[in-house]
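pasting Trafficking protein particle complex subunit 11 domain-containing protein for the record, 1257 residues
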Amino acid sequence: SRTVFDRLRQDFNETGKTASDHIAQVRLLKSELPADLLPTPAAAETLAETPQERENAWKDLMDKLKTSILGPFDARVRQYEADIAEQEARRSLPGWNFCTFFIHKEGLAKALESIGLVEDALAIYDELSLGLETVIREIAAGRAEGTATIFAQHTDDIETRILSDREQANGVSNGEDHKLVTAHAVLFEKDYREQIVRSTISVFDFFCYLFMRQKALILRLANTKVARLELGDVSGSAGEDLVLTSEVCWRASAFIHNNARTLRQDLSNAPSKKSPEDIEALVSSWTYAMADLVLSETAAPVLELAAKGEQGQLGNAAAAPKRADFEFAMGANPYPTRSSSLMTARKSAPELKRPPSVPNSELMSPPSSSGTDAAPKGAGVPGLPELATYRAELVMLQRKMLEHIAAQSGWRAGWAAMRQRAPSKMQDITLDEDDDHDTTENQQETTSDYVASSLILPALKPALASESAFQETYERICDRAMRYYALATQSKSVEVIVGDLAMLRYQQGNIEITEEYIRNVLPGYAADGWNSTEAEVLSIYAECLKRLQRTETYITTVLDLLAKVCVRRMTRKLPHWRVEDAHLDTEAVDVSGLMPEICAMSIHLSQQIDRPMSDYFGGIVLDPEVRHHSDCDGFKLEFRFNSLLADELDFDECKARLVSVNDSAQEVWLSSSGPFCASPGTVKVELQSHANTFGPFSIDQISMRSGKLVFSHEMQPRSSNPTLVLNDEKPPLIESQLHKRPFVFVYPPEKALDVDVSTANNVQLDKPRGLVFKINSGWNEIEDLELKLRPTSAGLRLHLADVAGGKARNGQLEFGSLGKGANATIEVPYTVEQATPDISLRFEAQYHTPKGTFTISQAVTLRHRLPFDVEVDDMFRLDTLFSTFAVCSTGGAPIMLLDAELHDSSVYEVESPPSLGLPMTIFDQAPASLLYKIRRKASKAAQAMRKDAPLALRLRYIASHNLIIAALKENFTQHLHKRELGGLSRLLIPLLIERCKQLSKIKFETAVILRQVFVPSYDDVGWAEIVSLLPDAVQPELSDALRKWHQHASHLELDFTGPIADEVQGQITIPVEVPTIDFVHSVGFALCESDHDQAQKVQTLRVGKPLQASVSIRSNDRWSSRSVFGGGKNSDAHGPEFAMEFQADPDTWLVGGHRRVHFKPSKEQTSTFEITLIPIRPGTHLLPSVDIRPAPEVKGEGHNAQTAQSSFSCETYCEAAGRKVQVIRDVRTVKVHVQESSGPASHARPSAGSRAVTGSG
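structre below
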């Protein structure tokens, strides 16, 4: 039998192969049904089902419901797509209407929205928005002929909707209450679709409708509170997508800006004409209401939690929404398959561009109106910074609209109020003809003609009831925007708002809070380079500090303000094309009288304030031309600068510091003669110094002082790369330093005090050497002179206490008076701890004259190494010592040795050779040899003192380089005086000397050999660089004089006998200690020849023939310390023992007998030893030699005996040294045997049978 279920399927299901089943069966248990739903009478018991069967029954029901719903929907969607495709195909045909196309396509969007495809629906609305803009652009351009698309010229009810007085909160709400959504929803209460169908909608309403739909869809996707309330969900448990919520704010900002222009044009086209004030008031009111509506709809609980710092709940509040998707069995697609031109996938907020942010550590904490700190940041919440940023932009848009409406009543707040109060000034323009059109377009409004419109938003009426209410609302909006920006880590935007609040507080007369606000924002203005804004802020900040009586901070602030103004004035004077830039207009700030005021106030400060001079003065130049006084020492330089201040300023003093290029420790200070006044424009100040010095100096620093304000300028850039200079390497004085700018070459006047430092010409090596200071007073009447010496070489010791004629005290020498033109010579003994080629020191002399106190300082480097070395070679005889002195040059330049003399001592007497060949020239590779014979004097040893024993070698010489330099100096000085250029001698002569010292060794040797000096050329000396430093009037004459001198003096005669040679002549006394030897042995060597040998100059010996030799040894202790000075060590009872060793070449001689013999010498007897010699190789050979050494001493006996080296010394003189003998073969008989040859060719060579036999007798 058929069941009821089968009958229902047969009656209600369609027939056919593709028909779907619409009938499903679900069995309900009787126990699960309420009693009032049970049938009467009671039904039979239901069939029992397993849990799996029950689950399958319910699943079958749900599947059939889905299929029944989605089937018709898919058909409807396909119909919509077909209609849209048809409308697209007719787009270029006459009669096409965009409104009709919009209705078809929106139908598809609403259908997709109804089943949850919100993103696809939003994509369709985006396409429609773009299409609407395209159509409007084509109609405006006149390219829409034949289309039936028309729009209303104006919106008839927009004024009513804007001015509608719905239920709302008093004043201006903060936008976070849901009541405000209802209050401003009246802006969209209109049947837009009906007007679209009739093609009577205006462009303004069309865009409003599109934005309303887009906003609703995005809010639904973001799962905001407003969207949930519209869908009936009041639980509010689901999280919100802040990224999508921020997209709503971003779209709203763009929509409001674009549609405000459309609304302004719409109101202008309305039949009822309105004044410009009414139009602006309505547009501002609509803008304000739209921003408020979006702010209320995008309010998220996470914003409040982040503002309160509840970080723990941010994760739950900002969790992404979870959507439960439909699920079909067997993997079926839950949505109909669609193929259309619409986008198939869409990312959330693809056009979002997050503004650049800064790290939290750099974000300032601005003061708020309530006195609390800035809100903490919700770090780690996706989309929170973007949402806070775009909400802040909407809040700032509200503030701007509020200001526009309030301006109609003449009310302004913040920077607008300050600029409105600023006095009007004349505009500076250039004299270019092309700049006539460059005038200010927007003139400031007069305070007497204000027309306020009454057509304003009802919500704004309480805020515009009075100026105080407007300022209160303005402050509240600023505080709200500032907190949003702080939450988004937008520190720069926060600083801008804080600056506005500071100006509002200043407008209200609250000076303390104004000062606090400005103090927080000033660093940001300075870092961003907002010159105009920073100047105005500094001006107001300075006024606040002055009222609060904070003197020091007020002075520094005014200095910052004046620096901005002066820099702007400096840039205006530079050549540039004109660019209109309001940010650089610092002339709106009145700074007249400020600098003299703060200079007077600075006197009472406890510390001085240093500022860069270049911030207030331009064209800072210290003229490198050195000018001298006409009657005293020292020099002057001219300092020039341009004062950019508007007032005259009195300075107490001006100082400049020069630092030596060659020695950074040497400084020279110049100062003005007294106070001076700097007027606007070019100022010239004469700086003078009482210091005498020489050399290139870099201009390091210039400073001017007024009160306790010091303006300094660093002229010399600091070098970042250190220069490596080797010990013996000296860079050129001028060429290597000219690239360092700016610099001054300082030199003293001709008649100034002169101090020449050199080493003493007379040197005694057994005494400290001396530094000679030659002082010439010049035109000075010196009352007293103090000389300070400071060694700069390691190990240099100056013995000031041993200086004659001066009083040493506290490391300096004090001397008495010195008249005009007087000369004084001071010799300062010195010693060095280690051998060094050069020594360096710095001297500073301070001298008092009736015209003031002057100083002269200089760093000098002198040659410490002697010009030559002396080596001694001694050869002892029994009663005579022969000493050979080898004198060689050490400096490379030749030395002329004039005289040499070895003086006797109390112990020894010297015999010189008949002629030493002096004077002679000593070159680097050709030393001179001096031979002397030394004997002991016939005096008692007990009377001889050891200190009187050394001899004295006195050498008189002329160093060729000193003679050449002195000759060039003398000739050059005479030439300068002939050309009346003696005033430059103190500049030119040291440079010439320095350049000549750098000549090569070959140049000096050539000059000595040819007795002629080759002067370096004009270019080699580098005169062109020096001449360029002098005044232009002197340069031609000086250059001509120098060139002529080089032409005439190119080959200067060198004279070693003239007065110049006598002046540079030097003398060195070298103590020569005679060595002491305990024993001197003289060895005689005699050969016992045969009778038939004749006495010849060279003896002839026969190979292999033995011969007897006799060795005789004579010894004495005449040269021992005990014999010369007495005392000393004594020999033991048996006398010292020596070992004689016979040394012969084993390839030449065979020695028979004892080759090593021990003996004890005797003063009165000669020790004789016999030995046998056999020559074994013919030729000329030296006789064997004899070497005598002290025998080792044996201490102890038996097994404990130990040998030790003897403490005696000895010298051996072998009389046969260098004697040669001729060794020949001893040939007596010769036998020759000749064998008869056997062939004709045997004469070509000896036969094997031929032989020669020799034999010795």
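Residues 885-1074 form one domain.
The longest strand covers residues 695-706.
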